[in-house]
Amino acid sequence: MTQDNGFAIAQERGITLGEIGHRIVEENDLTRVWEVRLEPGEELGFHIHYHPYYVVSLGGGANEIETIFGEKIATEEPLGHTTFINDPRAIHKLTNRSDQTYLSRLIEFKSVRWVYEDDPSNPVPEQPEGGGAPEGYEAAFKEILIHAATLPWSPKSLPGLSQKMLWRNEETGASIALIRFEKGVGIPNAHSHASNQFMFCLSGQYRYIPTGTTLVAGSFYCNPIGSVHGPTVADETTVFLEIYDGPHYPVQPPWYTNEEDAH
Ligand SMILES: [Fe+2]
Ligand SMILES: [Fe+2]
Questions:
Q1: How close is the Cα of 248 to the center of ligand 2, in Å?
Q2: Residue 243 Cα to ligand 2 middle (Å)
Q3: What digits encode the pLDDT tens for the residues 219-240?
Q4: pTM of the model
Q5: Domain end position, chosen among 47, 79, 109
Q6: Which of 81, 98, 226, 230 is most exposed by smallest CB count within 10 Å?
Q7: Centroid of ligand 1 to alpha carbon of 117 (angstroms)
């Protein structure tokens, strides 16, 4: 039920919803039978129904239904009158407006249960097993999200080489970056790294000249710390995801004029 059923107003006004009748006469798995008895002028306080129901009048019946929004509906239910309510209605109360006792049986059909979206008594959905956040998780959670496509390529001091730095740990020197070699560009010298270097080729073709080792889209390549490799050349413009788990070089390599580019 998406409409406003008056739960918020009830809360604002400090109204606690009551039962839909005065006593349960009989109950089984399918039905619950209530007695409603109102002396002249007496009121059955605000309540809401959770099941379709029949009302069978046993006498009286000139009542007034008043919704929590103030809408008033006069009822006429003489002895033997039956009313079937198959649609939920907003929170309401019932007042006997006649000078006779009103007595009825209200029979709820329990196999159908109405759920009101604005009902604060709705059960809170359980967290899926293992899916709940452990205590303190939110405070400790530091998320990083970069849409690399929106970052500009930043040229390095080796012409034809540029990068998009995604993450860097200044303490350890570890980093994750996208790097791009223009066609024909490469690292001009044999060298080794001061940490493990991992590369995943996203596009292009890139070759280690002395060994002929060639990386294409989808190639994963690793230079363990100290492994000597290069020179290299990009046979096509090539983009890598490049990861170092520590500092990139033991000393600043000669092909970078900017010391920053060796990090
Ligand atoms: Fe009612
Ligand atoms: Fe290298």
A1: 8
A2: 11
A3: 999 999 999 999 999 999 999 9
A4: 0.50
A5: 109
A6: 226
A7: 19
User: Residue 124, class by beta-carbon neighbours within 10 Å (0-12 exposed, 13-18 middle, 19+ buried)?
Assistant: exposed
Q: Which domain holds residue 200?
A: 149-262
C-alpha 28 to ligand 2 mean position (Å): 78
How many structural domains does the chain have?
Answer: 2
Whether residue 120 is contained in a domain is answered as: no
Average pLDDT, the chain: 92
CB half-sphere exposure, 15, CA atoms < 13 A: 20
Which ligand is located closest to the Cα atom of residue 230? Answer: 2
Find the 91 Cα to ligand 1 centroid distance in Å: 8
Distance 234 CA to ligand 1 centre (A): 79
Supply the pLDDT for residue 137.
66
